[in-house]
Specification:
The chain is α/β, with parallel strands linked by helices and 490 residues long. The protein contains 20 helices and 16 strands. α3 crosses α10 and α4 packs antiparallel against α6. The longest helix has 20 residues, at 230-249. The chain is globular and about 55 Å long.
Length: 490
């Protein structure tokens, strides 16, 4: 069976179900399979089935102590009736017939964002892990969100027995539609709370809570729905295989051809899933890490220096407004080893920066390319692609599209841009990109996008402006600990 170890200490070892249950390893590290050889698979077998079949195959590799029968049950429970597209994550040709460009639409789930793919699965994986480990405590899920994780996590865990969830989001740092998806949530076990700070403050605060709050509190233990939890990350691997299979079905590639993936990312989770797919055996060419003006990852992938001591920019792609990319630690473990990773993370915490060796950087650059694009370039991509293809992208997908056009030439057979969310979640920025006047409200902007494009508003967003606000708390970062303890004691 696969053993999961901490990225910072290989002596910390647990089963896959325990890694899902804990969320984060002791000492602040993240759980990873000890060796990439443990996940090596025959991708030709994985891509033979539909999305659910691929999910079963991938989950059985990473979550081997659950057993095939339990995995079958969890996959069905996770995806049955929750997605509006039969493919779950459909692949769409965008561009001229001679182009090799596609968009993988990841936003057909309950909250119209890519996080739904994983957060429809994590509650089922987590509750099964609790039973498998004879865990008696209730579980409080702590989550920091830059926009989309919060609503997807709330939707996934809403009214799940034996669980509660507290989502922290940056006050004024998400779109109004994203905020309303969280603060109008009606589940009896859910809480959304704004913090006076940015996403990095929220994420750092949540990580500290795992170290500072003793377990359990009043019979409640803590876990995470962020991609620091391996149970959040693994389901995202599946759509890389799905994209590859769909390219073959469309006649765009032959089995064995390499495919580039362009991934808009801030926390490095979505693209880390692509790295796992590559190491499982999928013929991935390059993984293009697309960043916005908060280009800390671009600098790292270019120079090997990670420096979070820089100006934080609020952009029109807020889910990527991140300066501390947690999942990069998982890549560092595989390239640099646990000892170096521990050293680098200590340097980041103490001085705000670290630099990897030239040899380590060369290995990373053999797979990854870092490219960044600003708001103006993203807006130009929205105008261009809508004008030429009548295809509408959200503000994160458009940044990735702009980065794809700026990336180095490649001999891959196709390039796939991973989408982030429905454009309706960022209606104001989309309208401005199209050169349209704003209406004065997110509701009006959403209707105007619908009138211009003719596309229906996703079911999860329709009517959201009429729902009552149920979560209005705004707190200081220093109050996060007492806030969570209070929720555990209720």
């Amino acid at each position: 069976m696969i053993e999961y170890v901490s990225t910072r200490d290989k002596s910390v070892r647990v089963s896959s179900s325990r890694a899902v249950l804990d969320g984060q390893a002791s000492g602040g590290g993240l759980y990873v399979p000890e060796s990439l050889e443990d996940i090596r698979s025959d991708y030709r077998e994985i891509i033979k089935g539909d999305f659910r079949d691929m999910a079963r195959a991938v989950w059985n590799v990473f979550f081997d102590d659950y057993g095939p029968d339990k995995i079958d049950e969890l996959v069905e429970r996770s995806y049955e009736g929750k997605f509006s597209a039969p493919e779950i994550t459909p692949l769409v040709k965008v561009g001229d017939a001679s182009d090799r460009t596609y968009v993988l639409e990841l936003y057909h789930g309950p909250t119209s964002a890519f996080k739904d793919v994983a957060l429809s699965a994590l509650p089922n994986l987590l509750t099964a892990a609790r039973d498998m480990n004879d865990f008696k405590d209730d579980i409080m899920i702590l989550t920091a969100t830059s926009g989309d994780t919060g609503s997807a996590a709330i939707a996934g865990f809403s009214d799940v027995p034996g669980t509660g969830i507290v989502v922290f989001y940056p006050h004024g740092g998400v779109s109004d539609t994203q905020r309303l998806q969280m603060v109008t949530a009606a589940g009896s076990n859910v809480t959304a709370c704004a913090i006076r700070g940015n996403f990095d403050d929220a994420q750092t605060g949540v990580k500290k809570l795992f170290r500072e709050i003793p377990h359990p509190v009043s019979g409640v233990s803590l876990s995470s729905a962020n991609s620091i939890n391996i149970g959040r990350l693994v389901p995202q691997i599946v759509y890389y295989f799905s994209a590859y299979a769909q390219l073959i079905d469309k006649g765009a590639i032959k089995c064995g051809d390499k495919v580039d993936f362009v991934v808009p990312t801030g926390n490095f989770g979505d693209i880390m899933a692509g790295y796992f797919a590559l190491k499982m055996g999928l013929p991935v060419g390059r993984l293009v890490c697309a960043s916005n003006k908060n280009d800390v990852l671009t600098e790292f992938l270019d120079t090997g220096r990670y420096d979070r001591k820089r100006e934080f920019h609020k952009t029109t792609s807020p889910s990527m407004d991140i300066l501390v990319s947690s999942n990069l630690e998982r890549l560092l473990y595989y390239v640099c080893g646990a000892d170096h990773t521990l050293s680098y993370m200590k340097q980041l915490e103490e001085s705000g920066e670290y630099r990897i060796t030239d040899e380590e950087l060369a290995e990373i650059k053999s797979v990854f390319e870092g490219v960044c694009a600003g708001d103006d370039e993203g807006a130009a991509a929205i105008r261009k692609v809508f004008g030429s293809d009548h295809y509408l992208m959200d503000t994160h997908t458009s940044v990735a599209w702009a980065c794809m056009e700026k990336s180095a030439a490649s001999d891959a057979a196709a390039a796939v841009v991973l989408s982030t969310a429905s454009p309706y979640k960022f209606s104001a920025a989309v309208l401005e990109a199209l050169g349209e006047e704003l209406t004065g409200s997110d509701e009006g902007n959403m209707k105007k996008v619908r009138d211009i494009t003719g596309a229906p508003v996703p079911a999860g967003l329709a009517g959201i402006f009429e729902k009552p606000v149920k979560h209005a708390d705004v707190i200081d970062i220093a109050d996060m600990k007492s806030y969570v303890i209070e929720k555990c004691n209720k």
